[in-house]
Amino acid sequence: MTDPEFLQIEQVVSDRGSRYAVSGGTVQGRAGCDAFIARLKQHRKYAKATHNSWACLLSDGGPVKNDDGESAAGAVILRMLERADLKDTIVVVTRWYGGVHLGGDRFAHVVTCVRAFLAEIGK
């Protein structure tokens, strides 16, 4: 798969009660990013997630990201998209908080999720 319209990979990582998933798809412009997030949150479990951190490297508008309360997660996702030279594809890492702070391990989990997405699309 090289051009995902909408891809979800559920339960990529579980750690101390927190669960992570990754979603992504092709978008056009910031409005496309907003529409993707809205579509994702139509699924109740994603709407109720603690964090839906995301990033996208837009060919017509540069980088955009949103940590959604998971400090610096959007920047981690964006760096990986830049390294993969993946434009006009939003990647969303969703976390359901399990009650235990993970510290820096949360960044490793974000990276694992983005890697799973990139591998799925052949990048």
TrEMBL record:
<dbReference type="InterPro" id="IPR036956">
    <property type="entry name" value="Impact_N_sf"/>
</dbReference>
<dbReference type="InterPro" id="IPR020569">
    <property type="entry name" value="UPF0029_Impact_CS"/>
</dbReference>
<protein>
    <submittedName>
        <fullName>YigZ family protein</fullName>
    </submittedName>
</protein>
<dbReference type="InterPro" id="IPR001498">
    <property type="entry name" value="Impact_N"/>
</dbReference>
<dbReference type="InterPro" id="IPR020568">
    <property type="entry name" value="Ribosomal_Su5_D2-typ_SF"/>
</dbReference>
<dbReference type="InterPro" id="IPR023582">
    <property type="entry name" value="Impact"/>
</dbReference>
<dbReference type="Pfam" id="PF01205">
    <property type="entry name" value="Impact_N"/>
</dbReference>
<comment type="similarity">
    <text>Belongs to the IMPACT family.</text>
</comment>
<feature type="domain" description="Impact N-terminal">
    <location>
        <begin position="16"/>
        <end position="117"/>
    </location>
</feature>
